[in-house]
């Protein structure tokens, strides 16, 4: 299993399949090509996940990635938000997959980061660096926010930054993350629901048909891309 595929699996919603393949995942995490410190951190993250109760791990995933938008694994959430441009960006990304001979195997949002990593795991190294370079600022902010919130997933995002071989200044992003208002608190979630309340008639916004921003449901969360 490649490192990109492993990171994608570990970022995805942890369904029961993960525990059934624990040994295979641990073998992949012990990749000797990784620097010793990174190998130790990655193995520690994975072992901690495997040692946890699945329901506890699943709840922790939801608390990290499914509350608010700042930790969303949907990449276009961080670029386009709820604008109309997001729909066209989705179409363009699906077309980019298809040009390389890949089709999505399920009705998943194409900008879901674990899905993109599943695709990139089968692409040449130069192409991988190019793709990761284009999203490195988003990944860097996710790494910074994960660190600010004490999430062990920080190591996964930092590994992606290193694979991108980009110029992201993580120290600057960490400072920015430390100054941000949290959007995953109960109060912030209440405000979000109020802002997104369904409105009809004259009060309905012009972009009421904007694309869904929710992550794939846990039952379809495992990203699959087929040649």
From TrEMBL:
Pfam hit, one: Nitrate_red_del
* Gene Ontology biological process terms in this record: chaperone-mediated protein complex assembly; nitrate assimilation
Keyword Hydrolase applies: no
Biased composition of type Polar residues is found at 210-227
Under Gene Ontology molecular function, one entry of this record is: unfolded protein binding
Annotated InterPro entries: DMSO/NO3_reduct_chaperone, NO3_reductase_chaperone_NarJ, TorD-like_sf
Q: Which domain of life is it from?
A: Bacteria
Q: Which UniProt keywords apply?
A: Nitrate assimilation
Give positions of region: Disordered. Answer: 202-227
Question: What is the name of the protein in this document?
Answer: Nitrate reductase molybdenum cofactor assembly chaperone
**Protein's organism:** Rhodanobacter denitrificans
